[in-house]
Amino acid sequence: MPTLPTPQPVVICADALRDLYPKSQMKAGIKAACICSPFFLLGTLLKMEWLGVIGIGLVFVLFVVPHILRIKRFLASLPCSVCGLPAGRHTTVNLIMHLECEHCGHLSRTDCLMFGHTPTKV
Ligand SMILES: [Zn+2]
């Protein structure tokens, strides 16, 4: 009797990862516009259009950077499906996110489909 290869456990993280993303893209967009627009307005009034760049920079520092850091921290803390230690690295194979273990080198499949703005559960 040939034995079937044991299926590798899938690391479940799509739901938790999705929770880290803004619930509504539109709300996030409005918030960003609210922060940017006074700078653009002021820039236009003072004939200093470059002030708008500060608004964009502020949105970047206030929302984009913490968001990226949160996602990075979360992904780095996910455990490897073989040794159970935090994998540390991740990569995408056929749009499916995989954890690349820094300890044993194992590639663990996750249930995250990285397609579009927010990850989808496979
Ligand atoms: Zn490992």
3D structure, described in words:
The protein is α+β, with helices and mostly antiparallel strands and 122 residues long. It has one domain (14-121). It has 3 helices and 4 strands; from the N terminus they run H-H-H-E-E-E-E. It has helices at residues 14-19, 25-45, 51-77, and strands at residues 88-93, 96-101, 107-113, 120-121. Strands 1-2-3-4 form a 4-stranded antiparallel sheet. Helix 2 (25-45) packs antiparallel against helix 3 (51-77). The chain binds zinc ion (ZN). Zinc ion binds at residues 80, 82-83, 85, 101, 103-104, 106.
Short synopsis of the structure:
The protein is an alpha+beta fold and 122 residues long. The chain has three helices and four strands, in the order αααββββ. The protein is elongated.
Give the tags.
binds zinc ion, 4 strands, 122 residues, alpha+beta, elongated, 3 helices, 4-stranded antiparallel sheet
Itemize the secondary structure elements and their pairings.
Layout: H1 14-19, H2 25-45, H3 51-77, E1 88-93, E2 96-101, E3 107-113, E4 120-121
Bound molecules: zinc ion.
Helix-strand pattern: HHHEEEE
Strand order in space, largest sheet: 1-2-3-4
Instruction: Give the termini separation.
Output: 32 Å
Structure summary, number of beta strands: 4
- Give Rg in angstroms: 20 Å
Overall pLDDT level? 91
Give the ligands present. Answer: zinc ion
Shape: elongated
Count of helical segments?
A: 3
Count of discrete structural domains: 1
Poorly predicted runs: none
Structural class: alpha+beta
Strand content: 15-25%
Helix content: 40-55%
Main sheet attributes: strand count, strand direction, barrel closure? 4 strands, antiparallel
